[in-house]
Amino acid sequence: MMSRRDQVRRAMSQPIGAIIDILPLRDLAEVRLGDDLAELIAHCCRPEAGDIFAIAQKMVSKAEGRIRKLREVKPSARAKALASEVEWGSWLVQINVKAL
Fold first, then answer.
1. From CA 61, how far away is CA 51, in angstroms rounded?
2. Average pLDDT of the segment spanning 56-76
3. What is the model's pTM?
4. What is the number of alpha carbons within 13 Å of residue 57 lying toward its C-beta?
5. Scanning 12, 20, 54, 65, which has its CA 20 to 30 A from the CA of 35?
6. Are residues 61 and 37 in the same domain?
């Protein structure tokens, strides 16, 4: 019986039979609150059946309005205390731990 490592090595040595192209979406418009990301992507390229798109979380956050200006974040006393324990910025703790 083959070990798991040998199985992986054997599988990786076999030809895949498919080509993967990774291309940037050059003409993609700036993402704004409420934008339909699928529509923006379809507008800047011609998707074909079987195409897969990987998009950054930042694009999704912008479309959903989940963007914060750091200068507007006011860390609580608890966020400041926790930040010193975990060695993060207090503004980062405040953003990520809403219960503070």
1. 23
2. 89
3. 0.57
4. 2
5. 20
6. yes
Q: Examine residue 33 and state whether it is found in any structural domain, yes or no.
A: yes
Domain membership of residue 75 (yes or no) is yes
Residues 36 and 49 both lie in one domain? yes
Structurally, the chain folds into a number of domains equal to 2
Q: Give per-residue pLDDT as tens, 33-58.
A: 999 999 998 888 888 888 888 889 99
C-alpha to C-alpha distances, 57 to 30, 54, 61, nearest whole angstrom? 14, 9, 6
Going by pLDDT thresholds of 50, 70 and 90, the confidence category of residue 99 is very low
The Cα 38–Cα 64 span in angstroms is 13
Q: Amino acid identity, residue 54?
A: A
Residue 50 — left, alpha, or beta (φ > 0 → left; ψ -120 to 50 → alpha)? Answer: left
